C-alpha cells in the first residue's frame, strides 16, 4: 500500500513538472487565436510552423544565440575553475580564518540576489563594462553555491590520499589538478549543468547591462520582440521558449549520469 501511494505521489509530481513543458511544445505549433482560447486546448487543431518562421524572421537569431552561448559558456567555465579551487582550499587546506571564510561563503549563498543587484550594477557601470561581454560575465565567474557544492564533495576524498601525494613531493597545484579534479567529475558535471542552466536562462542582468541589440542574449531578445504595440504574441513567445530550452535539455541528457551521481554524493564524508 505504501509503495502504491509513493508511486501515485511521484506520478502527480511528474505530471506537474512535465505538463507545462508539454503544453508549451504543443502550443508553439498552434495559431495565435487557438492559443488564446478559453478554456485552453492541449492538442493543436490546426498545427502550423508559422510561429517558428516568425521567430527566425523577426529575430537576429544567430547573434542572440551566440551571445547566450558565450555568456553562459564563459561563466560555466569560470565556475568550474574557480569554485573547484575554492572548494579544495576550504576542504583540504589548513590556514587561519578557514572557518570564517566558509561562513562567508554560506552567508553569500543565503543573501538574495536582489540585495546585491544594484551595488553590483553600479560597480560594473563605474568600471565602464556596461554593454560588454565582460560586464555580463565577470560578476558571476565565482559562484558561492558552486564553491559550497565543490567543498562538500571534496570532503569525501580521503585525506590519506592527498597526504601520500605530499609525502611523494607533489605540490598543491599538482595534487589539485592531477588527483583531486579527476575524482570530482560527478560534482563538476553537476556544477556545470547548474551553472549553464542558471545563466543561460538569466534575464534581468543581461536586460540591464546590455544596452544595444548586438549584446542581447536570447531570453532578453525573445521577451522584447514578442511584445507588440498592444498585446503579447504568445505564439512567438512559446516558440522561442522551446528554442531556449533545447540546448539546456541536450546538455542535461548528455551529462545526466554524472549530474545525478554528483548531487547524490555531495555532502557524504
UniProtKB/TrEMBL annotation:
Q: How does it sit in the membrane?
A: Multi-pass membrane protein
Question: Which superkingdom?
Answer: Bacteria
Transmembrane segments in this chain: where? Answer: 64-90, 102-127, 133-154, 175-200, 234-255
Quote the InterPro entries the UniProt record gives. MetI-like, MetI-like_sf
Subcellular location as annotated: Cell membrane
Every ABC transmembrane type-1 domain range: 65-255
Q: Which Pfam family name is an example for this entry?
A: BPD_transp_1
- Major localization listed first in the record, in broad terms: membrane
Q: Which UniProt keywords apply?
A: Cell membrane, Membrane, Transmembrane, Transmembrane helix, Transport
Is Transcription set as a keyword in this record?
no
Report if keyword Electron transport is assigned.
Answer: no
Give the family per the record: Belongs to the binding-protein-dependent transport system permease family.
Q: What is the name of the protein in this document?
A: Carbohydrate ABC transporter permease
